[in-house]
Amino acid sequence: MCLEACSTADLIGSLTARVSQLEARIGRIESAKEERAVPHHTQSCSAESEATAALASLGLRKFLVISLERASERVATLQNQTVDQGLHLEVLTASDGRDARFRSYIFPSRHPEATCSNIVGAMFESHRRAWEEAASTPGHTVVFEDDVRLAPDFAVELARRFPGLPASYDIAFLGTTTQKSSAYGDSGYLLRPDVRNRESILGMYAYIVSQSGAARLLELHKKTQRHCLFTAVDLWIGQHLSEISVFIFETPPSLAEYISATPSPTILENRQLGLVVHVGRTESHFADRNALEGDAEFAMIKAKRSKAQEHFEANRFREGLGVSDAALGSMRSYTCWSAGTVLQNTGVMLLRLMLADMDTKNAGKTLSQAREAFSSALRYFGGNVTQMGGMRAKEFHNWIANAHDIRKKNGLKPIPPHFERSGEVTLVDGSKLWPEQLLLIEPAQM
Q1: What are the domain boundaries of the chain?
Q2: Reported CATH class of domain 59-96+120-284
Q3: pLDDT at residue 385 above 90?
Q4: Smallest Cα–Cα separation from 259: which of 164, 359, 151?
């Protein structure tokens, strides 16, 4: 069926008729009142083949799974499931966060050679490449991450639910988590995320994107990609809920009990929804995923973080800063989101040293370093446009203000104004730092 050649009325009528036919056939197969009993496996195969044909007629022909080449075994179970349900799954090789092009300079003015791995950016690029494929593919494209498992009646439920989407939709989640959502229509199959809550979509592991929706997502990305982003792709979607048409598929009965008893493995406070289950952080998850936490560098940084914390709690701030500097200076492939915490703690210790420094010039330099550490950390927490980043930014500003107050109460001279309002600073790696705003922007890498 050529979707582009049909009028809206014809399209809706055709889709409705096809779904009605599908449901009638499924009902006949599943009915216990059939004159001739059909074995269970035959019922299942027949229903799935009917569903697969219906999905193809609705324009759902392309099924992609994003999977790392060095972790190809992760996708095997999902491939088997799609074959069993009559679906053809194509592998889109994921961008690898271990590649040098995803490295970020963490603290250029203090540790010019130190870098971290922008795993979030690699994941984002993988989805962007999936959108490029979808934008060039007529109809609709299904995108999975490789750590999902399908509902046993996934194809049937998708064929039943998909026609309820409005023709103008951009992206519809087959699996995600949310805290706030509301019913769309009266079918009980669709939800809308809360547009006012910019982080109401947490989880990007399964979705459908229309051809026009993929083009819209790419255009939005192009507008925001003036510099290197460290915002996760699901949070980025949440930031643009007012600009794109986003839906979530409600959980079918075949998964409802399991999901109710098994919270999201990554976002425990959220409700997991959709036609798939996110298996997420299993015991071997870190070893074979994009993350790098399982290597020797991670173990070394973890030990130094613990030692720096011991010094901090004992008010040995200079010793603690020395340990933190050793950790930061040795970073090469540590994950950027974890580096954010090290940078935050380094900033706090710099502030503590600044509090009692009677040399105002030296104290000003220490304050500038603290501001850079906080600014760099904020990038890796998603930036101040996210809830987490916004909360951290307020905390950092409060800590700096309190440090000034304590210096004043201790009778020390205030920091010279030029250390407080230095304007734009160009760092050695070409990044731009605005210390007063705690804003650091790294040139685009992708």
Answers
A1: 59-96+120-284, 296-441
A2: alpha beta
A3: no
A4: 151
